[in-house]
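Thought: the user wants the 3D structure for the chain below. I'll pass the sequence to the structure tool as-is, report back what it returns, then summarize two notable features.
Action: structure_tool
Action Input:
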Amino acid sequence: MVVSIILFLLKLIGILLLALFGIFLAAAGIVLLVPLRYEIKGRYHNGLAGTVRLTWLLKLFSVTLIYDKDLKIYVRIMGIKVFPGKERKKEEEPEEMVHAMEADATAVPSEISPPSSAKEKKVSKEAEKEETSSLETGKKEDNRFHFNKILSKLKFSFQKICDKLKAIKDKKDRLEEWIKDKDNQNTVKLLCSLTKRLVVHVMPRKGKGTFTFGFEDPYRTGQLLQIISVIYPFCHKQMEFYPVFDREILEGEADFIGRIRIGTVAWLGVKALMDKNFRRLLKKWLG
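Observation:
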């Protein structure tokens, strides 16, 4: 009888553990596989305005951010607003203080001391000679002190420049050694590949964006165009850039829809951590 009760309790505990494990697996699968969808709408014409909406699990959870000279945030769970965005009320300006006592505003004139007598202002010629001689000797000592101080500063600055040049040379040598290492080269290739996959995954699936930019100096516009050309192959289907070389301008409109799957991002991070050399470098960088 006792044995059967113990077996029944063990069976019940096993069923509960399996149920909890199944619930955990289901929750982990939902978090990792169900994508977080985003929608971005915005414009910039003499001012920024736009809307960012994040939804998850068939819009069961949603977060909306609206910006138009002021930021508003709305959070909904199952369509119920749990965090309504409230406009920030400007504090009322305090009224000016009324002076109660007018007598305090008037300043009391201070007594003027009488001028000193002519006898007190006169100084003997001998005292003047002594003062002039002492001033001349003091000036000579000051000049010597300043000259020695300038020499010491020049020596210190020269030594400091030499130390900086030596430190730069040491850093250059260490960087060359780091680049020539085959393990580091393989790690860099792996990270570049994973970063490319992450960018492709995060990029919007639908939508279009147009951006017009320009500076008064055409050279600066060309520099920015060179930077954009690096990322343009990854976003040429969603974005269009129009450079202007004769005037300063910055305008744009965007309407994007995309998704981010946490499981994909986590898997890319795990693949990076599986590299032994990357773990060693990460541990070294983090101290």
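Final Answer: Structure generated. The beta strands are 36-44, 48-56, 61-68, 71-77, 80-83, 206-214, 239-244, 249-260. The helical segments are 2-33, 118-121, 125-180, 182-202, 218-235, 262-273, 276-286.
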